[in-house]
Amino acid sequence: MSEAKFQKAVDYVQNLPKGGPTQLSTDEQLEFYKYYKQATVGDVNTARPGMLDFTGKAKWDAWESVKGTSQEEAREKYVKKLIEVLERNNSTDPILAELK
């Protein structure tokens, strides 16, 4: 998996318009988040957020769930997840062909 392909996928996900044809569920957002963090930082390296930080805990737990995954594998999974989401939505966006 090339770094350029991964970065292209990251840019696409981060710039998805609200209300656009491709909408991500909360679970999908967390999946992208955990693979992004694992690919760019590596294993989780912070303390788990406090009990009232629900979003922070969900993100931390998601990232922790991929502990031990190589950064290369995390990049691959991120791109594969985007391909899956685009295919599910019958996207005709040219990025789909670029990522395959």
From TrEMBL:
GO molecular function, one term: fatty-acyl-CoA binding
DNA repair as UniProt keyword: no
GO biological process: fatty acid metabolic process
Keywords: Lipid-binding
Record-linked InterPro entries: Acyl-CoA-binding_protein (IPR000582), Acyl-CoA-binding_sf (IPR035984), FERM/acyl-CoA-bd_prot_sf (IPR014352)
UniProt xrefs under Gene3D superfamilies: 1.20.80.10
SUPFAM superfamilies: Acyl-CoA binding protein (SSF47027)
Protein known as: ACB domain-containing protein
Organism: Coniophora puteana (strain RWD-64-598)
